[in-house]
Amino acid sequence: MRLNSGQLPWEATLPNPPVYKTLDGDITCDCLIVGGGMGGAMTAYRLSLSGASTVLIDKRAVASGSSHANTGLLQIANDKSLTACINTFGEANGVLFYKLCQQALGKILELPSLLDIDPQIIPRSSLLYASTPEDVPMLRQEHETLTAHGFDSEFWDTDKIGAHYSFSKPAALYSRGDAETNPFRTVHSLIDKAHSGGVRIYEHTRARHYEYSADGVICYTDHGRIFAKNVIFAMGYETQEMKKDRGAELINTYAIKTRPLASMPKWHEQSLLWETARPYLYFRTTPDGCIIAGGKDEQLTGPDRRDVRVLSQCQLLLKEVEALFPEINGVEAEFSWGAVFGSTRDGLPYMGPHPEYPHCYFIEGYGGNGTVYSMIAADLLADTLAGRSRPELELFSLTRSAKPSPAPAVQPT
């Protein structure tokens, strides 16, 4: 699957990334991670701290799949509101999901002090604004739900929004505790640290097929075999080529990064911006004085068709930036790209075991919060492999039905 189209911005920010050899020969390990994107990187780093014998392989270079197209917004709030999660899954499960995201973001914010390559993770606030006046009651309800369960949320009216930004909207929720990141640097910094902690990394190593036995899994590559007690598949959207998840949906999405601005527009705390419309637009700034904008989602097509659509869709994104911030009218896009994006029908990611794949676990961080989901999965699966029970995995079960499951009798730790 060709995941990305157009010109991506991140490689220039790490001109000499670490490189790793291709597997040549047979090896053994406790855990094999298949995929060198955000999910695989988070898990490799987490397992390196536990001392487990771990191998990570990627058929491409590290961080060159979906993580290469990631726009780097990290939030506690999800595409599905807390109110909607409670309505769908029940109060205990809905709140648990948001608390797990909050906990994961806290751990992500600790990473810069723990890694050797700066991942450029920067704390940010967020503004979720009403796209239309009809969305205001929904925003007010969400504000009440968030505050009732201990999450940071302020309800802003039109005047307050206009006092802090170049634009005004019918209403908005302002919250703290979120972040932005450079996803390319983050993946490389995590894998570099995992490698220094003993994880064996192999790039350009394609898994051809697998044999499952009572004792583990044998992964056959082009030039060797990997004998693993357990396998974690962290292949992102390409997982759908291996097994179809009935609740997963793939689309095309688009993004731009502007040229550096002479000065930032009126943009309170350079917060992350997004809206209530679905599909939604989102905006952030970068440390080098640019703006990233994303959205304009559309039906999944072949990569050739997406290649053609990049220019027109990204021109529309540029107009959206100018509409919010008229003082930078005439700003140009330096990078424009499109990519495959995945979500789930019920709004939760997939992570955990699958009955048809013994000794295997999956990380499918589908949705707009994939980096945060990757941190959740890394923690839950690392504990599971170490023999510690994590009933929270039931919430993200790959075999879950549309009917809400009973709440796990746990609190996030």
Notes on the structure:
The chain has about 425 residues and is α+β, with helices and mostly antiparallel strands. The protein folds into two domains: about 5-70 and about 185-245 and about 350-395, 3-Layer(bba) Sandwich (FAD/NAD(P)-binding domain); about 120-180 and about 245-345, D-Amino Acid Oxidase, subunit A, domain 2 (D-Amino Acid Oxidase, Chain A, domain 2). Helix content is about 30%, strand content about 30%. The chain has nine helices and 18 strands. It has helices at about 40-50, 80-90, 90-110, 135-150, 160-165, 185-195, 240, 305-325, 370-385, and strands at about 5, 25-35, 55, 75, 120-130, 155, 170-180, 200, 205-210, 215-220, 225-235, 250-260, 270-275, 280-285, 290-300, 335-345, 350-355, 355-365. The strands form two sheets. Strands 1, 4, 5, 6, 7, 12, 13, 14, 15 and 16 form a ten-stranded mixed beta sheet that branches. Strands 2, 3, 8, 9, 10, 11, 17 and 18 form an eight-stranded mixed beta sheet that branches. The chain is globular.
Share of helix, binned: 25-40%
Number of strands: 18
* Outline type: globular
Low-confidence stretches: none
The fourth-level CATH homologous superfamily of the largest domain is FAD/NAD(P)-binding domain
Number of helices: 9
Brief sketch in words of this structure:
This protein has helices spanning 38-50, 82-89, 91-110, 136-148, 158-164, 183-196, 239-242, 303-324, 370-385, and strands spanning 4-6, 27-34, 54-57, 73-74, 122-129, 154-157, 171-180, 200-202, 207-212, 217-221, 224-233, 248-258, 272-275, 282-285, 291-299, 333-344, 350-354, 357-364. By secondary structure, the chain is an alpha+beta fold. Strands 1, 4, 5, 6, 7, 12, 13, 14, 15 and 16 form a ten-stranded mixed sheet that branches. Strands 2, 3, 8, 9, 10, 11, 17 and 18 form an eight-stranded mixed sheet that branches.
